[in-house]
Amino acid sequence: MEVRKVGVVGLGAMGAGIAQLCVEAGAETVGLEVSSELAEQARDRIAHFLTRKVEKGTLAESERDAALARLTLVGGPEELGDSDFVIEAIVEELEPKRELFAELDRITRPEAVLATNTSALSVTEIAAATERPERVVGMHFFNPAPLMPLVEIVRAELTGDDAFEAAYAFGERLGKTPIRCHDTPGFVVNRVLIPLLNDCIRVLDEARVTPEDLDTGLRNGAGWPMGPCTLVDLVGIDVHVHASEALYEKTREPRMAPPPRLVAMCNAGLLGRKSGRGFYDYGD
Ligand SMILES: NC(=O)c1ccc[n+]([C@@H]2O[C@H](COP(=O)([O-])OP(=O)(O)OC[C@H]3O[C@@H](n4cnc5c(N)ncnc54)[C@H](O)[C@@H]3O)[C@@H](O)[C@H]2O)c1
After folding, report:
1. What is the pLDDT at residue 96?
2. Which end of the chain is more exposed for a tag (fewer CB within 10 A), N or C?
3. Long-range CB pairs of 201-209, under 8 A, 24+ apart, other chains included
């Protein structure tokens, strides 16, 4: 299946990055936000990142201009009607996603693939809001989307082979490394990483090790490129707590539940790098 025109719905942290990947890969890209101000802000961020690539010498100025020219901002979902492929990256809530998919189902061509970037919701439940669950698939990018190589291609209960493989191929075209998996809580990476990071945080208290020493331990004893406390600070303690709660709600496995220490840090506004303080002090 040839993907010429892509719709990206929600141009926040993830959607803007995904739209950037699409325009860089040569696809005509139609971006939709809740307001034209937010859409323009996303376009500015994309332009900023592409200009940084020009400054670093990894992108020609003419390529940047051509990529930006492939991005069109629209005012409503009806303008996504002729997209071959739509990627949804709106708020992580089931009802708004289901409403959007029902609408996309009504307005797009029957053969168009509808993909969701959800991290923790069921792709199957989102697909069930449409009359064509066989054309709905999960495409779980990692943050920041332009830099993180992985995309998980998620097969929901009724996803057809054709849409599944089209999403895999489109992930490759975007320069990503796709992996295939089924629609289970946390998919692959978060299913492994979230309880593992929670265990690491519990060990801080159990073994009375410092965050510095825990990080040194995992880097030097397990070959991790980055220690767990540094990683949670980078992800954002609020984001990690939210993801842990979502997984715990679905699996009821105690290891998924956020450790009380993290919840307390979150409540105190110690969110990691973005707030200037988490396990480490970033002094800004
Ligand atoms: N942030 C991450 O680390 C990360 C990683 C992987 C996947 N995700 C998933 O990606 C999705 C988006 O996350 P985010 O971090 O980019 O959130 P975000 O809040 O930065 O962006 C969401 C954007 O969607 C817009 N939006 C909301 N409803 C809309 C609608 N009906 N139509 C058009 N736009 C709408 C909002 O205005 C906002 O700009 C979520 O499902 C999230 O779980 C996030």
Report:
1. 97
2. C
3. 201/228, 201/229, 201/232, 201/259, 201/261, 201/262, 202/259, 204/229, 204/261, 205/261
133/131 Cα distance (integer angstroms): 6
Written as one string, the DSSP assignment of 157-182 is TT--HHHHHHHHHHHHHTT-EEEEEE
Low-confidence ranges of the chain (pLDDT < 70): 284
Instruction: Check residue 1 and give its pLDDT.
Output: 81
pLDDT score at 146: 97
Residue 119: active-site member: yes
Ligand 1 is surrounded, with C-beta below 6 A, by: 9-15, 32-34, 38, 89-92, 96, 100, 117-119, 140-143
Q: What is the pLDDT of residue 284?
A: 67
Q: How far is the CA of 258 from the CAs of 212, 240, 270, in angstroms?
A: 21, 8, 15
- Active-site residue 245, yes or no? no
Q: In whole angstroms, what is the distance from residue 43 CA to residue 47 CA?
A: 6
The one-letter amino acid code at 5 reads K
Q: What are phi and psi of 80, to 5 degrees?
A: -95, 5
Q: Which residues contact 100 (CB under 8 A, 6 or more apart)?
A: 9, 77, 88, 90
Tokens at 25, concatenated? 């890969």
CA 90 to chain centre: 10
SS3 state of residue 70: coil
